Fold Thymidylate kinase.
Amino acid sequence: MTTHAPPLFIALEGGDGSGKSTQARLLREWLEARGRAVVLTREPGGTDLGRTLRREVLHGEDLDPRTEALLYAADRAHHVHTLVRPALARGAVVVTDRYIDSSVAYQGAGRRLGREEIRGLSMWATGGLLPDLTVVLDLDAATAAARRSGEPDRLEREPSAFHEEVRAGFLDLAAAEPGRYAVVDASLPPQDVHRAVVARLSPLLGADR
């Protein structure tokens, strides 16, 4: 008898260059091999509107921090309403490359707009939807910068001190709710990182393990 698989919402967080895209792909392959329907998405950019906002916020004209925070929140509200919640309602596993914690770390901590204020904005935008598991891929700023390639975006161009503030923001969030977070050393080889992610995720899959 087939047991109905519950939906799951997983967020991959961490600085630019920490390997989120690679881990999202590996996680999708692992889940699909176990018969799960997977929706792989990202913020910003998981919808048509999100792709427009991503281009403007990362590569457009200079933005003040509050405008930047509001654009990310607008993208998140639309993303959750049109993509994430419908996928969860179908019983899918949603894996997102960035979610609320990125705003808390980048705009709340890095831009110093206030972590609680930015978290409250995103919680309002999403109707309070939180991931079942948030994986923080932890990597120091210098190593992350060395991994990045191509023309840097507005956030990637920020100095090392900014990126260390962002890193501390992610780690503080994880320390406050250890039951809902997994902090993984992103300096390890990708397959080792993947095994650590799977080890933390497996208990949430129930009969699908």
Notes: The chain has one domain: 8-208. The mean pLDDT is 92.
